[in-house]
């Protein structure tokens, strides 16, 4: 029973989080936010390529290289998983008001969370910004997935002037800020 409730909660977590009007209490430390992005990066690149396919020419960097980038980011994604899982547990706790069950199979959480998180992050890029995203991805292509994750967490922190965080919900801590 607890297991099935968890699966339903995990499947609806991004939608529930976005439906919340206030930012969740506290903030997520930058290393955890970076791990979430790094973890989701391989799938996010392919989802963004799909999302932007009708906005970009076939020879755009993203269209031509999404698969190879996803493969290259896969080892960093795997290495980021333990920290990303702790971040997911924190989100779960904040959204549902209870801790994520400790007996949950980590691989099950990973299998469910990866595409949902990647889709949530990819949707933050508006379709009219696909050309800009393509240029940014081409410029970042030589960086490791870990470096891209760190830069993304820093960018969200700097860009979050309204205090609404990622998807209007999850705030990333500024340097020296407690969570």
* DSSP, total strands: 0
* Average predicted local confidence, pLDDT: 78
- Distance, first to last CA: 32 Å
Whole-angstrom Rg: 16 Å
Residue ranges: pLDDT <50 for 5 or more in a row?
Answer: 1-23
Helical run tally: 6
The best one-word shape is globular
Task: Write the H/E string, N to C.
Answer: HHHHHH
Structural class: mainly alpha
Helical residue percent band: 55-70%
Largest sheet: none
Strand content: under 5%
Write up this protein.
It is a single chain. This protein has 179 residues and is mainly α. 67% of the residues lie in helices and 0% in strands. It contains six helices and no strands. The protein has helices at residues 2-19, 30-52, 61-96, 106-122, 130-140, 145-159. Helix 2 packs across helix 4. The longest helix is centred in the middle third of the chain and has 36 residues, at 61-96. The protein is globular and about 45 Å long. It starts with a helix and ends in a 20-residue tail after the last helix. The model is unreliable at 1-23 (pLDDT under 50).
How is the secondary structure organized here?
Layout: H1 2-19, H2 30-52, H3 61-96, H4 106-122, H5 130-140, H6 145-159
């Amino acid at each position: 029973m607890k297991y099935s409730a968890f699966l339903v909660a995990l499947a609806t977590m991004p939608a529930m989080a976005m439906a919340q009007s206030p930012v969740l209490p506290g903030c997520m430390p930058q290393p955890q936010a970076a791990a979430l992005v790094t973890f989701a990066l391989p799938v996010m690149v392919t989802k963004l390529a799909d999302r932007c396919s009708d906005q970009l020419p076939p020879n755009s960097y993203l269209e031509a290289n999404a698969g190879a980038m996803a493969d290259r980011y896969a080892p960093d994604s795997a290495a980021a998983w333990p920290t990303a899982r702790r971040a997911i547990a924190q989100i779960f706790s904040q959204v549902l008001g209870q801790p994520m069950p400790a007996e949950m199979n980590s691989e099950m959480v990973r299998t469910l969370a990866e595409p949902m998180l990647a889709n949530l992050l990819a949707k933050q890029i508006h379709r009219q910004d696909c050309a800009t995203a393509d240029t940014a991805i081409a410029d970042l292509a030589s960086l490791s997935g870990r470096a891209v994750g760190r830069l993304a967490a820093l960018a969200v922190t700097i860009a979050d002037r309204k205090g609404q965080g990622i998807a209007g919900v999850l705030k990333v801590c500024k340097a020296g800020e407690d969570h």
